[in-house]
Amino acid sequence: MASSSTTPATDSSGFDARRIKWLFLLGHPERFRIIDFLAERGEEVRVTDIYRALGMQQAIASQHLITLRDRGVLTSRPVGTSRLYTLAHPQIAELLNAVRPYVMANGNDDSASAGKGKAKK
């Protein structure tokens, strides 16, 4: 039997809640697109290049970039009148890559949202 210190069912320190909040942060569609784009690039990218490549409005992209930076998902540094953004930790790209085989194996199954507003048959 595993000890409770290695496999806790619940976490009284709040670690579970922090993980849930962090994953929720990544689950926003626009933020996910930004993170995925930066993970694929694997280098610092100008804010202008991010919003243009993703077809986002500059103000919306900037809001999400600031949120992700403030939460420790991204880092940024000023360069002239612009900012360069990159993933704060390579493990973020690894996390995205870890779910890729599952998504690919399940095709376009959108069962989580299928039937919203409809009765299932």
Short description:
By secondary structure, the chain is mainly alpha-helical. Helix content is 52%, strand content 12%.
Detailed description of the structure:
This protein has helices spanning 15-27, 29-41, 47-54, 58-70, 90-105, and strands spanning 45-46, 74-79, 82-87. The protein contains five helices and three strands. It has 121 residues and is mostly helical. The model is unreliable at 1-8 and 112-121 (pLDDT under 50). The longest helix has 16 residues, at 90-105. A hairpin with a 2-residue loop joins strand 2 (74-79) and strand 3 (82-87). A three-stranded antiparallel sheet has the order 1-3-2.
Percentage of helical residues? 40-55%
Spans of 5+ residues with little confidence (pLDDT < 50)? 1-8, 112-121
Rg over alpha carbons: 18 Å
Instruction: Report the principal-axis shape.
Output: globular
Mean pLDDT: 81
Main sheet strand line-up: 1-3-2
Count of individual beta strands: 3
Output the number of helix runs. 5
Our measurement of the CA-to-CA distance between the termini, rounded to an integer number of angstroms, reads 43 Å
**In this structure, how is the largest beta sheet organized?**
3 strands, antiparallel
Percent range for β-strand residues: 5-15%
